[in-house]
Specification:
mainly alpha; Tetracycline Repressor, domain 2
Length: 166
């Protein structure tokens, strides 16, 4: 994921990965059939760890929609869960499979956030608009507040959620 984030999809190479991990190419092939298998694994991991785990964690916490919106937003910021999104988006521009996964994950994320706004009492159209605003904020938050401390970034995201849930 770090190679993808820092070098783009072109930098995700078997030899580079093996060197960085200080393992042989044979070791790589023990875990992955080929480079495409690795790329498929990256997309699956990104979907699961950056989306499904976030949703599961917020759902398990219980409480109403507002509480779970706040927990979700704090989790994304505190754990840097949007850090790989720009690299996935860039990859998706030239790869149909990555584009398909990106669209599916985006729909899943947005659907979840919108459902929380609906649960918090907003009608569907308003929930959708507010959900899109929060999703856009969370996707760009790290780039906007790059020089801010984590404490400040969490304070700001809490303010955003409060504003969107009024």
């Amino acid at each position: 994921m770090e190679l993808l984030r820092t070098r783009g999809i072109g930098g995700v190479r078997v030899l580079t990965l093996a060197r960085n991990l200080r393992v042989s190419r044979g070791s790589f092939y023990w875990h992955f059939e080929n480079r495409q298998d690795l790329l498929d694994g990256i997309l699956e991991w990104w979907d699961r760890e950056m989306t499904d785990v976030v949703i599961d964690r917020a759902s398990a916490a219980g409480g109403g929609g507002k509480k779970r919106l706040l927990l979700t937003a704090e989790n994304v910021v505190a754990n840097g869960l949007s850090q790989y999104d720009p690299a996935i988006r860039s990859w998706a521009e030239g790869d149909k499979k990555a584009a398909k996964v990106l669209r599916r994950v985006t729909r899943k994320r947005l659907g979840y956030v919108v459902s929380l706004f609906e649960e918090a009492g907003f009608p569907p159209g308003e929930a959708r608009a507010r959900g899109e605003l929060l999703a856009i904020y969370l996707m760009g938050e790290a780039a906007i507040h790059v020089e801010e401390s984590l404490e400040t970034r969490l304070r700001l995201v809490r303010r955003q959620v409060r504003s969107l849930t009024r």
